[in-house]
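Render this sequence as a predicted structure.
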Amino acid sequence: MKIKSKEEILEECAAIIGSGEDFSLSLLANQLGIRKASLYHHFSSKEEMLGQMYGMYHRRLVSQGYRITLSSSLENDLGNLVAHWTALYLSDGFFLYLRALMMLRFKDRQAEEEARSLSLMLSSQSRVVMEHHLGDGKGAETPYMLFSSLLEKKLEDILLYQRDEGDMDELSKKFARFVSH
């Protein structure tokens, strides 16, 4: 029986939770093909394991940060923002973790904090785009809050309910037209 790396264990932890199964250390050990006691080589408790899972994925998400290159078109900039976040949420590296995070956020304080941090990243990027096109004043506040909320809701629907993301491009087009009128 090969001892698994901490990273492999944390990735499998996210995969189990993200698949909707009831997570337990026994199930995790079984999925990894190791004894439950082997998990304690890396973690002192289930809570420590979850905390380290959040930390590992948080660092990965931050490293995928989005550098906004603003253009003269609100529709184009919103489209780039939507494309970036959609690709991130649907990527093999993050899909199950983000799904797990959404499932745990109402039960686990650290999951709630991580979900809030992710929301703030998306929101602040939306704000930068709106302020570039609508000005720095209060005129950009409502549109950026509305846009980031809509985008988050659509991404959450994809994660939790496995809804089709086909109309994600339309979000930026319709919103740009809405704000421009």
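Summary. The longest helix spans residues 109-134. The chain has two domains: 6-54, 68-180.
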